[in-house]
Amino acid sequence: MTFSIVASNPSTKELCVATSTCLVAVGDLVPCILPNVGAICVQATVNPSYRATILNLMKKGFSNESAFDHVLKNDKKKEHRQIIVINAKGQSFIFSGQKTITISDSCRGDHFAIAGNMLASTLVISSMKKAFLNNANVFFPKRLLLTLIAGEDAGGDKRGCMSAAIEYFKPNRRIMTLRIDYSNNPLKELSLALEQRYSKECKEAFDR
Questions:
Q1: Concatenated DSSP letters for 103-158?
Q2: What is the phi/psi pair of residue 70, to 5°?
Q3: What are the pLDDT digits (tens) for 158-196?
Q4: pLDDT score of 207
Q5: Which residues are bridge partners to 169 per DSSP?
Q6: DSSP class of residue 30?
Q7: Can you tell me the distance from the alpha carbon of 61 to that of 52, in angstroms, rounded to the nearest whole number?
Q8: Which of 72-83 are b and which e, b meaning 16 or more Cβ less than 10 Å from the residue's Cβ?
Q9: In terms of DSSP bridges, do strands 176-180 and 163-169 run parallel, antiparallel, or are they unpaired?
């Protein structure tokens, strides 16, 4: 029911996460950033507490995978969960349980991880990956938003899109959070909000 991307830019130490779903207020439950540590999305069967727990373990020196193992080892519902994480060095990890609702898919590469469940099409994740790679020179949070839009254009959540959110961190600045909690077109509204928030960085129109 949710499709998301986490990404980092090791050269600038930027971290960003973008997510969308058919449910209300995805930004309240799914994404999280811990500055200078990493970014995470916890989706499918959501346990919001896992966000801070996993990121704090990473801060203590746990690898992405070992942090997941530590949190999920006794979780009876882990096969219903989908979690993606990226650290500040650009290293990513994905856990996608075998009982997440189909179509469930994920991918990762240099400095990013993408995942979704209850997707309308098998093209959603591959379209998101292509968009992320093709917009390497775009302002970082806009790059992730364009990735979400590509996923939505490929079908997105098969029940539709009702909410969306972006969190963005750049060193020496506080975390920026933009949320559209309920809308018939949350990605369009999120695009407008991002353009207003970063008018100098977002000079191009969101009409690709």
A1: S-EEEEETTEEEEEESBS-THHHHHHHHHHHHTTTS-HHHHHHHHHHHHHHTT-BT
A2: -65, -40
A3: 999 999 999 999 998 999 999 999 999 999 999 999 999
A4: 35
A5: 15
A6: S
A7: 14
A8: beeeeebebbbb
A9: antiparallel
pLDDT score of 31 more than 50: yes
14-21 sheet: strands from edge to edge: 105-109, 112-117, 2-9, 14-21, 163-169, 176-180
Residue 140, CB half-sphere, CA atoms under 13 Å: how many? 19
pLDDT of residue 201: 63
DSSP state of 175: P
From the number of C-beta atoms within 10 Å of its C-beta (0-12, 13-18, 19+), residue 199 rates as exposed
Q: Residue 27's closest CA among 202, 151, 193, 143? A: 193
Q: How far apart are CA 184 and CA 189, in angstroms?
A: 9
Q: How far apart are CA 141 and CA 38, in angstroms?
A: 15
Q: Is the pLDDT of residue 204 over 80?
A: no
In the block, tokens 């209850």 appear at 118
Mean pLDDT, the chain, whole residue set: 94
Interatomic CA distance for residues 31 and 19, integer angstroms = 7
| 174: CB partners within 8 A, 6+ apart | none
User: How much is the pTM?
Assistant: 0.94
Report the distance separating Cα 137 and Cα 206, nearest Å. Answer: 15
- Asked if residues 154 and 134 have their Cβ atoms less than 8 Å apart, the reply is no
Mean pLDDT of 39-59: 97
